[in-house]
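Sat 14:20. Reprocessing the chain from the morning session after the first attempt stalled halfway. Input below, unchanged.
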Amino acid sequence: MKLMENNCPVCGKIVKNYGLCPACYELVNKSPTFYYDIEGLDDLIVSSTYAGIMRRLIIDFKFKGKLSYGEIISEIMIEKLLERNLSEVVLTFVPMHPRRERERGYNQSKILAETIAKKLDLKCQEVFEKVKDTKFQVGLKKDQRQENLKNAFVVKKAPEEIIIVDDVITTGTTISELVKVAKASGIKKVTALIAATEIA
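Finished this time. Tokens:
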């Protein structure tokens, strides 16, 4: 599994520092328009639109083992995060069921959270655990997604303030379920940091 490349992963142009070349970086929509009404969620930060270059990066990162793309995606996510006060915050991530994570070999959301935490010198903790092996959400309608994820997550640790990191938000059902159990466990402030939205 190749981790790093000397070329822009989109156009192939040689780059001095690992990542997108300036031209491809400019093509990423870093001001997405979106609306999600997620009860209990204190803040939602969405870094891009799930289209074009960002979609390609996420798919290759998530499903094709291009783990180094997590570096590129996390850099785009950090831009929006730096606008917030991060003094007391703990980064966490959307968990996978252990069986699914073994099959894939990694949790892409965990990699993003750990990468961002390292770059910003923040804590990263495994706040949630997925205890129910659910169906894949792709192709399910919102009410089916809600039923699929019902009672799927539990809280392992409860810091006062967390940021949940994930790669893509579609209906917001996963984040909604995590917020529900987080607030029930006593976590006071919950923010979600998402790489890309499918709704724009």
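Residues 92 and 164 are 5 Å apart (CA to CA).
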